[in-house]
User: Fold this.
Amino acid sequence: MGTSDWQPVFILLVLVVAAVALLHSVAAAVRAVREPLYTGPFSGGLEPREHPLSRFHVRWYPVTMIFLAFDMEMLFMYPWTRAVSEVGTSAVVEMFLFLGVLLAGVGYAWREGAFRWS
Assistant:
């Protein structure tokens, strides 16, 4: 087995290395310059006081849960307004039961002090 048997392998290796080098040089030539963008204040007009990924105080979580409860209420009340005329009295009774459950949740949150900030 002589050198002439390995000549196609060496030629292929040189071609692959040249192609990879050419691709890297073309990518470096057409690449956009990556500079960090300055992001100023969004809508408040003031510079942020803390990092956007900072942790929230634990007192915000009950407020979030109450907001989600009322958000779900609105989510179910919009289609209900379309169906109430077709279904009739049972739809009205079901909606008031649903609102009663939500009101009981708000009463529980109030009793537990979710609305006190001190």
Remarks:
- The first helix runs from residue 3 to 30.
- The chain is about 70% helix and 0% strand.
- The CA atoms of residues 19 and 25 lie 10 Å apart.
